[in-house]
Amino acid sequence: MKGQKKKARAVLCLSVFVVMAGVALAYGQSTGFTDNIYPVGKLKPTDSVPKLKVADVAPDFILPAVEGGTISLSQYKGKKNVVISFVPAAWTPVCSDQWPGYNISKKLFDKHDAVLIGITVDNIPTLYSWTKQMCNPNEKLWFPVLSDFYPHGAVAFRYGVLRSDGVSERALFVINKKGIISYIDVHDINQRPFLEAIVKALEEANRQ
Amino acid sequence: MKKKSSSVVFFLFIVVAAFLFLCASIGTAVKSVSADSAGLSTIELPIPESEGEKEYLGLTGNGNFKIGQIKARVLIIEVFSFYCPHCQRTAAQINDLYQMIEKRADLKGKIKMIGIGAKNSRYEVDSYRERYLVPFPLFPDESMEITEKLGVKGTPTFIGVKVDGKGNQEQFYFGEGGFQDNQKFLTEIIRLSGL
C-alpha cells in the first residue's frame, strides 16, 4: 500500500516535471537570444585616456578576422573610407543590439564609399558564436569582425579606448581614404550611438 | 482505497498538466496584461506628416494625438528596434499580418497597426521602413519614454489595445518575443478584444 502511494507520487512528480520542461523549451526557443545576454548593469560612461585626435594619422594594425585570415587598416588606404566600430564585449546588452543595425545598412556605407570594421577584445570562437546570432541562419555579417584578443586589447590600447577592466570603449573612428582620422566618438558605454552620426561623419570624410 | 488514491493522483495530474498547457498556449498574453492602462493614456505621438498615414489612422491636422484617438476598434502596437535581429527577421511576417488584416473585409478599418522604434531616432526608423517596406506607420521613441510607459522590456513586443477613436484606450494583450503564426495571433487578438 505504502509502496503504491510512493509509486503514484513519483509518477505525478515525473509527469509534472516533463510538462514543465516542455513549456520551458517552448519559451526558450523564442527568447533564447535574450536569455543569453549577460546583464552588465550601468557602467562608468568612459574609462580610458584619449591618445588620438581628429587629423592624426590612424595607427595601422593587422588583426585576425572571424571569417579567417587577417585584415589590416592599410589595405584600404587610397581606396575606401573606413569606419571602425569598437564594442566592449560579446554577449552584452548594448553591443548585441548595435552591429545588427549596421548589418542592414550596407547600402549606406556603399553610398559613402566606405567599409566597416568591427573590433572587440574577444577571441575568435566567442565572436563566431555571437555574430551568428545577429543574422538569419546561413547568412553572415557583411562586414569583417576582428579579434583584438591577443596581445590583449593591443589595438584598442593604441587607439586610446582600452578600459581599465580590459574591455574596450564603445567607440567609432572614421578614417578617410588618406588614412587620416576624420571623426572620433568615444561614446557612453551604456548608450548606442545613432546611425545618422556615422552618415554625417562619412559625408565629412568624403569632403576632405 | 488503492483505487481511490490512484484516481486522486490521476485527477491532480490532469489538472496540473492542463493548467500548464493552457499557460503555454496563451503565452505571455495573460501574465503581462496591464489592468489600468495608466501608461497608455499618457502617451502622445506626433500626427504623421504623410497624408496616407493620417488617413489610415483617421487623424487630421498637426500636433500630437493619443492612442485612443486612432480611428479603429483595435490597435496592434509593435515595439521594435532597427537594431534588433529578431525584429529584422520577422519584419516580413509582420508586414504579412498587416496585409492579412487589410484583405479581410470584416477586419479592415477595425484593426490597425503602428510600430514604435525603441531607442531609435527618426533616421533609424525611416531606414527600417525603407529596408523592410513596412506599410503601417512607425514612430521613433528616441528617449524611450513611450517604450517605458508601455512597460516594454525587450523587442519585439506586441500590445493589443481597444480604442474608440475618441481618446479612450484599454490594453488587452501584451506579448513579448513575437509569434510564429499570424493566423493564430489574429484569432487570439479578435477573441481577447471581443471584436
Task: Tell me what the structure shows.
The complex is a heterodimer of chains A (208) and B (195). With 208 residues, chain A is α/β, with parallel strands linked by helices. In chain A, the strands form 2 sheets. Chain A has a 5-stranded mixed sheet with strand order 5-4-3-6-7. A two-stranded antiparallel ribbon of chain A has the order 1-2. In chain A, a hairpin with a 5-residue loop joins strand 6 and strand 7. Helices cover 45% and strands 21% of the residues of chain B. In chain B, 38% of the residues are buried. Chain B is globular, with a radius of gyration of 19 Å. Chain B has 2 domains: 31 residues; 162 residues, 3-Layer(aba) Sandwich (Glutaredoxin). Chain B has 195 residues and is α/β, with parallel strands linked by helices. Chain B is built from 8 helices and 7 strands; from the N terminus they run H-H-H-E-H-E-E-H-E-H-E-H-E-E-H. The chains are: A alpha/beta (208), B alpha/beta (195). At the A-B interface, helix 1 and helix 7 of A face helix 1, helix 5 and helix 6 of B.
Oligomerization status of the protein chains: heterodimer
And the CATH topology of the largest domain in chain A?
A: Glutaredoxin
**Beta-strand residue fraction of chain A:** 15-25%
Give helix and strand order of chain B, one letter per element, not per position.
Answer: HHHEHEEHEHEHEEH
Trace the largest sheet of chain A across and list its strands.
5-4-3-6-7
**Could you give a short account of the major beta sheet of chain A?**
5 strands, mixed
Uncertain residue ranges of chain B? 15-36
Radius of gyration of chain B: 19 Å
List the helices and strands and how they pair.
The complex is a heterodimer of chains A (208) and B (195).
Chain A: H1 2-35, E1 62-64, E2 70-72, E3 81-86, H2 93-96, H3 99-103, H4 106-111, E4 114-120, H5 124-132, E5 145-147, H6 154-158, E6 170-175, E7 181-187, H7 195-207
Parallel strand pairs in A: 3-4, 4-5
Antiparallel strand pairs in A: 1-2, 3-6, 6-7
Chain B: H1 2-26, H2 28-31, H3 38-41, E1 44-46, H4 51-57, E2 64-66, E3 74-80, H5 85-103, E4 111-118, H6 122-132, E5 138-141, H7 145-149, E6 157-163, E7 169-176, H8 182-193
Parallel strand pairs in B: 3-4, 4-5
Antiparallel strand pairs in B: 1-2, 3-6, 6-7
